[in-house]
Amino acid sequence: MINTDTCPGVRRTTLDIENKLIDLRGIARLLGVSQYTPQQWRERDQLPAPDEDFPGKPLWRAGTIVNWAKDTERWPPGKVARGPRKRRTPAEPAAT
User: Fold this and answer.
1) Closest listed residue to residue 67, CA positions, set 47, 88, 94, 41
2) Residue pLDDT, tens place only, 9-66
3) What angle do CA 15, 40, 70 make, to 5 degrees?
4) Which end of the chain has the least Cβ crowding within 10 Å, N or C?
5) DSSP letters of 32-75?
6) Residue 90 Cα distances to 13, 84, 87, angstroms
7) Angle at Cα 78 formed by Cα 45 and Cα 30, nearest 5°?
8) How many whole angstroms separate alpha carbon 94 and alpha carbon 44?
9) Is the pLDDT of residue 80 over 70?
């Protein structure tokens, strides 16, 4: 593979980008969501398993996240999948 950092004018290949390791903040930037959203997804077991797991820093390949985002309708960037909203029940009247 060509090292594009030392070759000006050479575009990165799709394979380079898909294999790039990103952390939770990188996921947020990639998908155009709040920096806290990927952590919430992880806490709810909604993210796929990390591709690499360094102590205290899980990492995913960008391609893994893009595929997951497409499968969960979070792609294109900025689109957030929302489940059905819970209906609020009217508050019970206070007993007197």
Assistant:
1) 47
2) 555 566 678 899 999 999 999 999 999 999 999 999 999 999 999 888 999 999 999 9
3) 35
4) C
5) T--TTHHHHHHHTT-SPPPSEEETTEEEEEHHHHHHHHHHTT--
6) 55, 18, 9
7) 70
8) 35
9) no
**Cβ proximity of 18 and 61 under 8 Å:** yes
The CATH classification of domain 14-71, taken from the options 1.10.1660.10, 3.40.50.720, 3.10.50.40, 3.30.450.40: 1.10.1660.10
Burial pattern 50-67, b for ≥16 Cβ within 10 A else e, equals: bbeeeeeebbbbbebbbe
Query: Which token pair is 35?
Result: 């920096």
Most confident residue range from 10-19, 63-72, 75-84: 63-72
* pLDDT at site 16: 77
Domain segments of the chain as ranges: 14-71
User: Which residue has tokens 């593979």?
Assistant: 1
Number of H helices, E strands in the chain: 4, 3
